[in-house]
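Final report, results section. Input specification for complex C-07:
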Amino acid sequence: MSGKAIITTPYPTPDEIAAYYKIPPKRVAELRQMIAEIRADEASKANRKKNGKPKGSRKSSAPRKITSSKR
Amino acid sequence: MSKRELPVAFINVPYSTRYERVYLALIAGVSAYGLVPSAAVRDPSSRFQLERIYELIASAQYSFHDLSFVSLDRKSPQTPRLNMAFELGLAVAVSRSTGANHQWYVFDTVPYRLDKALSDLGGIRPRIHDRSPESVLRALMNVLGRLTGGPTLADLLNVYHEVEKSARSIKRDYSLDLFDTKPFADLIFAAGEAALRYVPALGG
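Structure output:
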């Protein structure tokens, strides 16, 4: 087995990767859109977390009305 | 744009859903180090599988071989899967040929097991992981480095999480099988974009 490899070549750009794998421009655009949606979703989750409002939370700030009684 | 030769890393893992996270972690990890992953994913257009795999390994500067799938499969007749060990053999041969520029690395999940399963590799200590993405990425960090600005474990995990979400999206959109030509190419592209965002040396 080889020793630790130290990589000195520049990072490939996504366009170079697309060319290497012959990904058509239309598909590249779709993939960029998919990645943008993933990131937007992540950002929105992070914002909800920051603001302390979990997804689907419908709790109002008003005090809860007691609907049952133990009279 | 003039084409330059890209640094390619061949990924050799079992094509089993149990190994999906290992596969995604290796794609994310090698991309975050600035390498372009390749693999012998199914290619229905190719008839000459052995020739194709040999060419893929010979054209890669690095290869990563997970030999941890040593059990018998469930389909009758039950057989061990020998492809991973065979591809490692090809990589070793490529690395020893005249003028070769190929480095290979072995991974397993059980320490010292390879001494018994593949004693021809005697003295070679595989990198151990537990099939979790973090352990695979840690193992990768032990064998890869960059001269300047290499990724941290946190960077690698960020790239992994985005690749994993892309995989989920691909599964929803068109293919439940990630070990196929098109999903593989799409994942490599997504990993390249993720590296651009999350590896600071790339301005992420």
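The radius of gyration of chain A is 25 Å. The longest helix of chain A spans residues 25-51. This concludes the modelling results for the funded period.
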